[in-house]
Design a protein that fits this description.
With 291 residues, this protein is an alpha/beta fold. 28% of the residues lie in helices and 8% in strands.
């Protein structure tokens, strides 16, 4: 009895000290109440976070830069004149002299033959895409102090330091233009020959490129050979090296071989059809070899 009496006294004592039980100080049992709807805002969660009306509730996301009808940010400010017509400019993917030397050292390029755009594409390490306004390769001067090969190379763009690095070793460099149709044939000759169509003529440079490809300083393929010889000496004096004599070189024929301004492939004339299946060449009649 004494034990029950002590327990009752203790309970009465707690009731006297604890606050009065009211609706404001009681809470429901755990997990006894659950919400019927999810989300928030005025709809009570019946939109499931997808919003109202139109593309907002269909997950049809707007394109990048669209400002719901407002003038886009990139049109509210004037653009730099430098970028005017940038999508129409000719592009020249770079190849450094260091990359070229590595290709030669790993036997991907045979320097006993002239090197052109087809030779570079056949290495499998570089490529061009005429559809994205790529018109050939430009040779950069990275690794110019390590370049030691004597080559006859044709690229589409090269700086003065690159020309000096090649001519210092007794080589020859030439810059040449190819139109998009010619580039398609040059980048993959096998695919072009399998079509069974004649080799096309190379078109002349456009008006804004004639000055570059007729300049002897740039070693343009349309420049005067005598002017090129003079500028070879001028460049040797400027960079302080002795210009090797090509005339006394045993590889004179390889170093002086070049294409006609209308020609695409060495040894093949425009208008010829290459039959890979029968391994023969169908030559056209009445087409001049130097046209």
């Amino acid at each position: 009895m004494s034990q029950f009496r002590e327990t009752a006294d203790k309970a009465l004592k707690m009731l006297r000290t604890l606050p009065r039980v009211q609706i404001g100080n009681i809470r429901p049992n755990p997990q006894s109440k659950q919400n019927d709807k999810r989300g928030r805002a005025q709809h009570g969660g019946d939109k499931h976070g997808a919003g109202n009306k139109g593309s907002g509730q269909r997950q049809n996301f707007m394109r990048l830069g669209y400002e719901t009808g407002n003038t886009p940010f990139y049109m509210r400010f004037p653009y730099e004149p430098y970028y005017k017509g940038h999508h129409l400019r000719r592009q020249y993917p770079p190849i450094s002299l260091l990359q070229l030397q590595v290709m030669i050292d790993t036997d991907r390029i045979d320097i006993s033959q002239p090197i052109d755009l087809t030779t570079l594409c056949n290495t499998g390490l570089v490529k061009i895409d005429p559809a994205t306004k790529e018109f050939g390769f430009q040779l950069t001067d990275e690794g110019a102090d390590k370049f030691k090969a004597k080559i006859n190379i044709e690229v589409q763009h090269a700086k003065e330091s690159v020309i000096a690095a090649i001519e210092r070793n007794g080589g020859v460099i030439r810059t040449a233009y190819y139109d998009p149709r010619s580039l398609h044939a040059l980048k993959n000759p096998q695919k072009w020959f399998e079509k069974g169509v004649p080799i096309p003529k190379r078109m002349l440079p456009p008006q804004d490129a004639i000055a570059y490809y007729t300049s002897a300083e740039n070693r343009g393929y349309l420049a005067d050979p005598e002017e090129i010889s003079k500028h070879r000496l001028v460049l040797a004096q400027k960079y302080g090296y002795e210009l090797p004599k090509i005339e006394d070189d045993p590889q004179y024929e390889m170093l002086t071989s070049s294409k006609d301004p209308r020609q695409l492939f060495y040894g093949l004339e425009p208008g010829w059809v290459i039959n890979l299946k029968d391994q023969c060449i169908i030559k056209s009649k009445g087409y001049p070899s130097s046209a």
